[in-house]
Amino acid sequence: MSKIILFSFMLLQQMSCGILFGCLKAGGMYRTWHPHPILLDFNDPFSTEVKPRILLMGLRRSGKSSIQKVVFHKMSPNETLFLESTNKICREDVSNSSFVNFQIWDFPGQIDFFDPTFDYEMIFRGTGALIFVIDSQDDYMEALARLHLTVTRAYKVNPDINFEIFIHKVDGLSDDHKIETQRDIHQRANDDLADAGLEKIHLSFYLTSIYDHSIFEAFSKVVQKLIPQLPTLENLLNIFISNSGIEKAFLFDVVSKIYIATDSTPVDMQTYELCCDMIDVVIDISCIYGLKDDGTGTPYDKESMAIIKLNNTTVLYLKEVTKFLALVCFVREESFERKGLIDYNFHCFRKAIQEVFEVRMKVVRSRKHQSHLQKNKRPTPNGTPRMPL
Ligand SMILES: Nc1nc2c(ncn2[C@@H]2O[C@H](COP(=O)(O)OP(=O)(O)O)[C@@H](O)[C@H]2O)c(=O)[nH]1
Ligand SMILES: [Mg+2]
């Protein structure tokens, strides 16, 4: 199935595009494409060893399940109004690409996390990032107290955790109010830490909402901190764009629209939003016209590519990099005339990415092998090894 799409957009009609995407997503066109949540298994040390774990925490109704559904399941934000409250800890593996390979643990607010029977040490030990969601439209004093308790306990167990605070639901606040709320929360959270003599703990703050791209942008930054290959990817992107006359390039995880790397020029929100919209267009159209008659096939494969010409002499160019990653570039029209050069450089870039990917796969495989050997070496209760060694 070929997916060459040539668009010539007269205007950056973000509004109308938004409506179109909303309708398509609400129809649940490709929801089967996503991993399903699985129940918590505490006795699974191997998974924490290989995959950095992201914990999603916060008070009840702060928006945790909504964030997870919108970012990883393409649920439309309005549908989250009908989400039932979570009463189990829910662990989801998001291992759709080797670069975005982590777990989200959605904690229901009402669980007493510090119940002595609850093994929080075990949970924090394998955690890469702890996202704490604060509802900015509500009184946040209780949330701040909970944040402090959570952060201090988690830090004691594992000082390497990245603490990421999502000041959430900011769509309901005016611009001034947003800044004021962020300042206030930042100040209070850090004062609480200083009072406890823990000023060395670093908290990162993000203003987020599921009703715009801020939640994807924030998640991108959280995930990037957990990708050890990030400097290599950035370097590759820098080399690629400077040799191809490209203005800006993002490496996207197509399913979640998290950008896992970009070149070192600054990112502006509008550029990122345009890339997200482009991915939506490509996947939505592929879902409608690209699948086989019986509905089989995938909406994204080796042939996936798209060119969108904007009326401001910019060209958006999307190409498949790996099964789950896409490169989206911003190119000036005059530079796009040398498309052959861009394509050649892209070919080299893709090869390099695959090599980075291969190294990682080798490490994962050898760790798996070692863990398997260790398991088998462990004697059974009567002291005999499980397998001949
Ligand atoms: N205005 C607004 N409402 C949100 C946002 N995120 C979530 N919500 C709403 O907050 C409510 C609680 O969300 P839920 O995900 O169930 O919270 P949880 O208990 O933390 O999992 C739902 O009605 C959501 O629609 C947001 O960014 N903005
Ligand atoms: Mg929930």
What does this molecule look like?
- Helices cover 42% and strands 20% of the residues.
- The chain has 11 helices and 13 strands.
- It has a 7-stranded mixed sheet with strand order 2-4-5-3-6-7-8, with helices on both faces. Strands 1-11-12-13-9-10 form a 6-stranded mixed sheet, sandwiched between helices.
- Helix 1 crosses helix 9, helix 5 packs across helix 6 and helix 8 runs antiparallel to helix 11.
- The relative contact order is 0.13.
- The N terminus and C terminus are likely disordered.
- The structure holds guanosine-5'-diphosphate (GDP) and magnesium ion (MG).
- Guanosine-5'-diphosphate (GDP) binds next to helix 3.
Q: What order do the helices and strands come in, and which of them pair?
A:
Layout: E1 4-8, H1 14-26, E2 38-39, H2 45-50, E3 53-58, H3 64-73, E4 90-94, E5 102-106, H4 120-125, E6 127-135, H5 141-157, E7 162-168, H6 175-195, E8 203-207, H7 214-224, H8 230-244, E9 246-253, E10 258-262, H9 269-290, E11 305-309, E12 314-320, E13 325-332, H10 333-336, H11 339-377
Parallel strand pairs: 1-11, 3-5, 3-6, 6-7, 7-8
Antiparallel strand pairs: 2-4, 4-5, 9-10, 9-13, 11-12, 12-13
Helix pairs in contact: 1-9, 5-6, 8-11
The site of magnesium ion (MG) has 6 residues, from helix 3.
Subcellular location: Cytoplasm; Lysosome; Lysosome membrane; Nucleus
Family: Belongs to the GTR/RAG GTP-binding protein family.
Organism: Cyanistes caeruleus (Eurasian blue tit)
